[in-house]
Amino acid sequence: MSRKQRKRRQQVDRIKTRKRDSRGPDTEFELAEAPYHNRPVPLERVDDNRWRVPQRGSMRVEGLVFADESLLPDLRSDRCLEQVANVATLPGIVGRSLAMPDIHWGYGFPIGGVAAFDPDEGGVVSPGGVGYDINCGVRLLASDLSAGDIQGRLPALTDALFNAIPAGVGSRRKELVLDERDLQGVLRDGVQWAVEAGYATLEDLERIEERGRIEGADPSQISERASQRGLPQIGTLGSGNHFAEIGVVDEIYDPQTARAFGLRQGQVTLMIHSGSRGLGHQVCTDFLGVMLRAAKRYGIPLVDRQLCCAPIGSEEANAYLGAMAAAANYAFVNRQVMTYWAREVFRRELKAELTTIYDVCHNIAKYEDHPIPRDEGPSGTETRRLLVHRKGATRALPPGHALLPHAYAAVGQPVIIPGDMGRYSFVLRGAAGSQRSFGSACHGAGRLLSRSEAKRRFTAKDVQRQLEAQGICVRGASRATIVEEVPAAYKDVADVVQVVEGSGLAERVARIRPVGFVKG
């Protein structure tokens, strides 16, 4: 087969995969009645930053949406509130079906959705509660540079990062192609593999959620197709909303915590946002049909096929959790290897170092211990082990939590909230109020416009001109991706963060202004 024929075959395969994924699994299934299907979802005010979705029909718990009045019109513009209610129908759900202020419509669960399930009360695991991009997440790195050190050198630095970190659909870097043995190590051991291979330091390891390794990873559950997609893609950004962002700290709100995190006014930072690439996407694809058949087998009524699930502890649930954890470990290593490439660039171009502040998951399901109100007996709470699904949400642990790195034990976990290409991002710290959200906060700004709508309204030249006028350099693998990620396509992340802080989930520490972007 010629090179041209191979390229055409790959294009056809990608198109077929996208069409198949958009349909979802083909298993026949009779759907139960959804609580608010095609009906307006009522919201009852709890306070200025919280709204209750009343329990009705097959909902086992009520919904709780973190938002203020200014965000409500955006929430009602798609079916995300209906999805909050649908998630509340799943067996074994604990507390409430939660939605962060950056919520928008997603596959099954809304993006910005959080739900916890009790293994002892018939709880389930659902791939829709994690999504296709397993462990899509973000890493923040701090440099020893100030803004003045990159003045006049930003275009060259952005170009160097673009050349070093492969971006776009199918991107790969020839210098690092894993063999099957390497891939098994990545899937099983996560960032520990990267430490042993020379791509990570022990300090990196300490400053990654779960130390860069999700327990229970089972590489044997990864299909051959998923492995083949993952082999060449380690250390690459991918496309969509993934990016590497050069930023400058332009506001400090909490000096003591900023010092503990290693942040200061005027400091140059780098933020990397990416996930498990084609491997994670394939894992989700592989298990949707499995979970739909499992739901039918175990008699779980579904109000939406995209909420297909299996009981925790079942053969199907164990297989999915093993594969998902392996894909999550791949994503940790993916961001770690990109960190390695970025460090090479900063050393070569600026003789500067990059230090990991923290790395967090956005799309994950994992076992965690959380306090919940007692059902019977004395008032107060009891700690229970739950399977927490976060889809487009960030863990936000408060000070003193046992899972925090020693360096952050007294101040709380760094909570990294990216904004859009034209405004700002925020660093927060986890607060005590996150107990009411299973230790969770928002993960970003949240989309206002779909990608197709953004492309209808704007052109690449419009976006490039707008960003250049603000002194922001952008390098992208395609013009289409830049248009899809136009700042106007997103909510103002400051509005989202204000709700998170007003709800007591996390507290602002610093603001970062973007100056350079590498996009897929």
Structure description:
The chain is of the alpha+beta class and about 525 residues long. The chain is about 30% helix and about 25% strand. The strands form four sheets. Strands 7, 8, 9, 11, 15, 16, 18 and 19 form an eight-stranded mixed beta sheet that branches. Helix 8 (about 225-230) runs antiparallel to helix 10. The radius of gyration is 22 Å and the shape is globular. The protein starts with a helix and ends with a strand. About 55% of the residues are buried. The model is unreliable at about 5-25 (pLDDT under 50).
As a whole number of angstroms, the C-alpha radius of gyration is 22 Å
Count of DSSP E strands?
19
**Mean pLDDT, nearest integer?**
91
Amount of helix: 25-40%
What percent of residues are in strands?
15-25%
Query: Number of DSSP helices?
Result: 15
Distance between the termini: 29 Å
Secondary-structure blueprint of this entry?
Blueprint: H1 3-23, E1 44-47, E2 50-53, E3 63-66, H2 72-75, H3 80-87, E4 93-104, E5 111-117, E6 124-125, E7 137-146, H4 154-164, H5 180-189, H6 191-196, H7 202-206, H8 224-230, E8 243-252, H9 255-261, E9 267-274, H10 277-297, E10 310-311, H11 315-350, E11 354-361, E12 363-373, E13 381-391, E14 394-395, E15 414-417, E16 425-430, E17 440-441, H12 451-457, H13 460-469, E18 473-476, H14 479-484, H15 493-502, E19 506-519
Parallel strand pairs: 3-4, 18-19
Antiparallel strand pairs: 1-2, 2-3, 4-5, 5-13, 6-10, 7-9, 7-11, 8-9, 8-19, 12-13, 14-17, 15-16, 16-19
Which features characterize this protein?
seven-stranded mixed sheet; alpha+beta; 520 residues; 15 helices; disordered N terminus; eight-stranded mixed sheet; 19 strands
